[in-house]
Amino acid sequence: MYANLKRPPRSVVEWLADVVRAVAIVVVIVSLFTLPFTDFAVLSMSLPAVMLSRMIGLRSGLDLVTCVTVFVAAGSNVIDLYRAWTGWDLIVHAVCTGVLAAVALVLLDDACVIEPTGRRRTPIVVATMAGLALSAVWEMIEWFGYRFITDAIFVTYDDTIGDMIAGGAGALLLGIVASRFRLTRADRAAL
């Protein structure tokens, strides 16, 4: 993982992904001093994902999409886009869960739990299961935040189920892509 992290970017897309990572880090640091703590916490939850996508050696386009998606998902919460734009919540849940399912597939591949992605059907099932599990965990975090931190978090039964369906659908689509294409760079270093 460290070898992938310290590897210099070699393409425009890899540079863009690293720029998004750097912006995310700066925004999180600035938010610590300028935003309410709950907003800082939401933004800071995006940092592990934007760093992990580089560390596991995702293909450059998928790395960029992961960084942008995760940071947009966190930022949308902070600037209240989920309430302002009808349907935005479902779109973000689908795309974000899909890219996080990609990260899960690569981690499971590196741990020799599943076969490598590309030309196999296993990723369809595993990505969907990972996406549904990630969706469930996220919804539990939302509920916990609503119950114990602030009632400003929007939590209803319909919203929870809709978010999980969208997340599962995004992960399923990613699984279909991963069954046909490798998700990692050819020159990446495994765990």
TrEMBL record:
Keywords: Membrane, Transmembrane, Transmembrane helix. Pfam families: DUF2238. It comes from the Bacteria. The keyword Transmembrane applies. The chain crosses the membrane at residues 20-43, 64-85, 91-112, 124-141, 161-181. InterPro entries: YjdF-like. This is Membrane protein DUF2238. It comes from Microbacterium algihabitans.
